[in-house]
């Protein structure tokens, strides 16, 4: 693993949805930069797997079980982290789900669960963590968006609405918290090689790839590197921004 | 041992970056001492810590002056 000069040593980072894909890459990357990392998953077995991966890679921290759609679960987990490791001052809101359907067939439950898990959760997570950050007079909130929030995508009106909402939320919170040296940014991945995209039909995959000037899928590490930049000192003057990382698929 | 009034005023000075002589019991955090909305939230957080109590949001919103803060702490000792 890449080791850098421990730019985040002494910081506690909380990464939601860290059991696989982009979240897992982010957890490892922040760990490599010296942060103590708490990665969350929706199941105990997922949490245990995260703990194992972190420890195998020499990263301090652990995995914890968290349901980002439950306010009680969030409050309990953030409290436990503060007691065991110190209040998290780096929050990466990565957990997300898709429930794709064309609007005319979409069920209320498909709409509500995507809005709740992908958008309302970041409101709850940030609220639970901001107290510790204002006290520290330092903080980083990094919300993982999607290129779909800017481009739109047929069959993903719920997901696109949540991600576009996340970006507006990011800008407002950046203005609220700027005076405390807390930055709030979004990172919008394009077509990244994860379980989520591996599930797509081959034809759909090829169509998507044809839209990417770099002609390949992104690697989760290429998202994690941007998150690490925003979390560290080098990204300190960037706030309220959405960084697009998509191989040129969408140019803002 | 300092009085509650002294402890409250000390926290107000620290949190809002004002001098002791600027702070009277009647001072309003926002109007007289230049606090913004985030400052007032942090001030309540600091009071909670100092006096080891939890101030619910609906109560916190009513604490707008130094005297109101002192009164709240006295009433909840």
Q: Cα-atom Rg of chain A, whole angstroms? A: 17 Å
Kindly provide the radius of gyration of chain B, computed on alpha-carbon positions and rounded to a whole number of angstroms: 11 Å
Element-by-element helix/strand order of chain B: HHHH
Strand order of the largest sheet of chain A: 3-2-1-4-5-6-7
Distance between the termini of chain B: 15 Å
What CATH architecture of chain B would you give? Orthogonal Bundle
Strand content range of chain A: 5-15%
Overall mean pLDDT of chain A stands at 95
Major sheet size, sense and barrel closure of chain A: 7 strands, parallel
Distance between the termini of chain A: 32 Å
Q: What's the CATH superfamily of chain B, by name?
A: ACP-like
Kindly estimate the percentage of residues of chain B that lie in beta strands according to DSSP.
under 5%
Biggest β-sheet description of chain B:
none
Count the helices of chain B. How many? 4
Tell me which oligomeric state these chains represent.
heterodimer
Global structural class of chain B: mainly alpha
Which segments of chain B are poorly predicted (pLDDT under 50) over 5 or more consecutive residues? none
Percent range of helical residues of chain B: 40-55%
What does this structure look like?
The complex is a heterodimer of chains A (252) and B (77). Chain A is of the alpha/beta class and 252 residues long. Helices cover 47% and strands 15% of the residues of chain A. A seven-stranded parallel β-sheet of chain A has the order 3-2-1-4-5-6-7, sandwiched between helices. The longest helix of chain A is centred in the middle third of the chain and has 29 residues. Chain A is globular and about 50 Å long. The relative contact order of chain A is 0.14. The model of chain A has no long low-confidence stretch (mean pLDDT 95). Chain B is mainly alpha-helical and 77 residues long. Chain B has one domain: ACP-like (Non-ribosomal Peptide Synthetase Peptidyl Carrier Protein, Chain A, Orthogonal Bundle). In chain B, α1 packs antiparallel against α2 and α1 packs across α4. Chain B is globular. The model of chain B has no long low-confidence stretch (mean pLDDT 94).
